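Could someone model manganese (II) ion with this protein?
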Amino acid sequence: MGLPYDGNSSFLRGAAQAPPLIREALYSPSSNLFTEHGLDLGTPGRIVDASDLELSDEPGPLAPVRQAVAELLDQDARLISLGGDHSVTYPVLQAYGGKYKDLTVLHLDAHPDLYDELDGNRYSHGCPFARVMEEGLIGRLIQVGIRTLNTHQSEQIERFGVEIYELCHWTAPPELAIDGPLYLSVDLDVFDPAFAPGISHHEPGGLSPRDVIHIIQNIPAPLVGADIVEFNPTRDPLGITAMLAAKLLKEIAGRMLESS
Ligand code: MN
Ligand code: MN
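Reply:
Sure, complex below.
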């Protein structure tokens, strides 16, 4: 499902234009619909397009997202949401928290997104995981790829008991021990901007596509939901980031199907 929304972005707009361009890249004749493990996502019924949700562009909470996701979860869907800025993940996880107890969230991002508020906005794309943790929506939050910690966000990590893998200590993708269902949230700025220029916050020193694909292919738990957020097409003139988002979409869908 596409969540074409960028009203809670703190720096640049543009992420609202992402969902149709990720779909276009997914179905581009320049590639095919097979995962690297050989699953054909073009087989009818393997993936279903729930289309784009209609959303305002005002800053603030996103109750329609929670509602729409809850309806899909009632049908036992495993949802992959296409952002939109990262603020969409909070209402998505509100819906998931109503269905799954003690969900583990694996969050790939340059930023921890744990601000209590950013520029006066508690729903900012810099805040979703503070809201998620305050509400006790999930059991565990594991963050990988972080390289922008400041004092406040370090305090929030302590306060909420977040498990964090900062890139300053990176040697190889971490071995994750996870029980029970897992939700994956991928902010495309986890990648080095050389691989993913189409994002709002260029933060050098990030992961490679192979690092992240390795993590996805080796998720050691049933994958019940995911989002791919923060693609900003206004900074992606060659379509490189759109193709990367589509690649992630394929590998995430493949992992979901393998682990169901
Ligand atoms: Mn980020
Ligand atoms: Mn983020």
